[in-house]
From TrEMBL:
It comes from Streptomyces brevispora. Pfam families: PspC. It comes from the Bacteria. Keywords: Cell membrane, Membrane, Transmembrane, Transmembrane helix. This is PspC domain-containing protein. The keyword Transcription does not apply.
Amino acid sequence: MAALARPRDGRMIGGVCAALARRFGTSAGTMRVIFLVSCLLPGPQFLLYLGLWLLLPQEPQSSASTTW
């Protein structure tokens, strides 16, 4: 299983949905749709997203993608 870290590529806002998609083996688009649909239900989904954005570490930058 992949580690839970916000990726540097394939993210739209904070990378939370992309990180969760990688962790659970689904596409980022599917995870975004699930999140949007869950926001229609009562609950703290948006606050949870913000919390994960702050708490999840950024994926380490690979040495091959560094630019000078």
